[in-house]
Design a protein that fits this description.
A hairpin with a 2-residue loop joins strand 6 (136-137) and strand 7. It is built from seven helices and eleven strands. The protein has a single domain (4-174, 202-211), classed as Rossmann fold, CATH 3.40.50.150. It is 30% helix and 28% strand. By secondary structure, the chain is of the alpha/beta class. Helix 1 (4-10) packs antiparallel against helix 7 (182-191). The chain has helices at residues 4-10, 12-22, 39-48, 61-70, 108-118, 156-162, 182-191; strands at residues 29-33, 53-58, 77-81, 93-99, 119-130, 136-137, 140-141, 166-173, 176-178, 199-201, 205-211. Bound molecules: S-adenosylmethionine (SAM).
Length: 217
């Protein structure tokens, strides 16, 4: 896992925008799929409160331990080791969320389909995924050779519809900067190279807000 604290810092704004638009509140039951070190799970726990529930799911058992540590003050967080492709929860949730997950999976539509099945009728599926090659350092495109589809964000609105969800809203946001600061530190954490004073546009995150349809009469 790469620089989770810095990711939380620089990509906090897109997360806040999405959660504000949904009006996530006290008592919500949510799942963060591909939860990593648990930054989003902790942010969600603070919003849903003690009467809510946050499932933090990741295929890597190390992530479960890290999330459990990060969320030790939040008993409403339950960290689970499970593949997104096999997502199965003990109860339907109001929101299934993922960020920086679908770029790593072989079949993003299948994962979005599992997330759709995890939410109640009328519940939300929200994904935030990058268009890596739209990021720039000193005007040059970024790349992420380890990801299966580093530009999956560019396809995201169509992928949620192919997963049978109703697309309610979609947009892209990218942190940018030049010189020392969280954007440069984040990039250095990802690439191992100090960008100095080069201008940086980090990969835009495409956010989709989609709903599971309510069954007709
Ligand atoms: C780049 S990290 C993102 C972490 C977190 N979502 C965030 O935004 O900070 C990707 C995470 O997805 C997990 N992951 C990758 N493939 C997965 C899969 N098929 N099912 C569940 N988790 C997966 C990895 O173990 C890793 O923790």
């Amino acid at each position: 896992m790469d620089a989770p604290v810095l990711r939380n810092d620089v990509y906090r704004r897109p997360l806040a925008t999405a959660l504000d638009r949904l009006a996530v509140g006290a008592g919500w039951r949510v799942v963060d799929v591909g939860a990593g070190a648990g930054d989003v799970a902790v942010a969600l726990a603070e919003i849903v409160g003690r009467n809510g529930r946050v499932y933090a799911v990741d295929s890597d058992p190390v992530a479960r331990d890290e999330t459990a540590r990060a969320a030790s003050a939040h008993s409403q967080v339950l960290a689970i080791t499970q593949r997104a492709e096999d997502l199965r929860l003990p109860e339907p949730v109001d929101l299934a969320f993922c960020r920086f997950l679908l770029l790593h999976v072989t079949d993003p539509v299948a994962v979005l389909g599992r997330m759709a099945e995890a939410v109640r009728a009328g519940g939300w599926v929200v994904a935030q995924e990058p268009v890596t090659s739209a990021g720039r350092v000193d005007g040059r495109p970024l790349s992420m050779p380890d990801a299966r589809d580093p530009d999956v964000g560019a396809l995201l609105p169509a992928l949620v519809r192919r997963a049978g969800l109703v697309l309610e809203d979609a947009w892209a946001e990218a942190p940018a900067g030049a010189g020392p600061g969280p954007v440069a530190s984040y990039l250095e954490g990802l690439t191992g190279v100090d960008p100095g004073n080069d201008p940086i546009v980090l990969p835009p995150l495409v956010t989709v807000l989609a709903r599971r349809a309510v069954a007709g009469p």
